Amino acid sequence: MNMAVFWIIVTVSIIALLQVNYYNRRGLSKVEYERRFNKDEVFVGDKLELIEVLSNNKLIPVPWVRVESRMSASLKFKKQENLDINMEQFHKSVFFLGGNSRITRRHEIQCLKRGYFDCSRVFVVAGDIFGLGSDSRDVVCNARLTVFPEILKPSRLPDTALKWQGDVAVRRWILPDPVLVSGIREYRSGDSQKDVHWGATARTGVLQVKTRDFTVSPRVMLVFNSQISDNLVGAMEPRDTDFLETGVNICASLAAWCVSNAFDVGFASNGAAKEGENGLPYLEPRCSHEHLRQLLRLLAMLVIKMQVGFHALLDNLIDDGITETDILIVSAYWSDAIEKRVQQLRKNKNTVTYIPIEGGGQD
Fold it and tell me: pLDDT tens digits for 167-184?
């Protein structure tokens, strides 16, 4: 009996060693992992899915496969089952794979903050049933996500922004284009005789005049100040960058309003165009839905930190010869240095409007 037990132990040990050796060398053989978001671009507050697909293309099962990756705390998972999220920064998903099997998991995620999230790099580990051996490799997937800033409702915009919208909408309709005819209507007192449409008058028996389109469509430049005060030295406190996030939302909201009203709109800032890059963000005024998405992408990736002093950014606009443009300065404060540059911009036939970020003021 003792010999039987001995041989059972020996046999089990040999099998265990063989399977440990196999999974050390071949655990991930013919195992494929894919990950993607079901949307590439969303807005803050939107929900989407992170889709994981794991395939085992061999007959031998894999007792466990663990997929690990870093995930931003700004991407909030709805459910935590089969997940291990440490401090909302580290995502771990564990699978069992039978022979010739395929598993698809969908995780609902809510986007809490704007940004560009690269979740493409994952670490995949497969092991034996006893956890004594493992095979691992790095995998690069197509899992990248751009989260646009929030588009604020009019009730959440500063009063100065609402006033500017009203003023520019009225100003747009001041000058009619003498060439563009948009329709015909009955004559009204004060209409010019040169606008009479004689053919339509003859047909209807009532005096008719031409109506014309209007071409006063201002070019708008949104200028975002990425510093909390004029005397900023070094990096800002997290609470200051969080405060300035409201300014990014204001810029996104005004850009959307401009495009919806057929205004050319551009963007400039003294922040960083992208994490790890030093170039200043800048976009020429244009008007199209694709241009708006390009501007929103720029805002999504914008890093709120001072690359150059804000007065230097205004100097750049002056040196570039910007003219006949509605310039909207979105800033937490106003100062003499800013006012000096603004006077020069106005001399160059621009209008300049200060849109304060709530809580900002005189520096």
Answer: 887 776 554 544 445 567
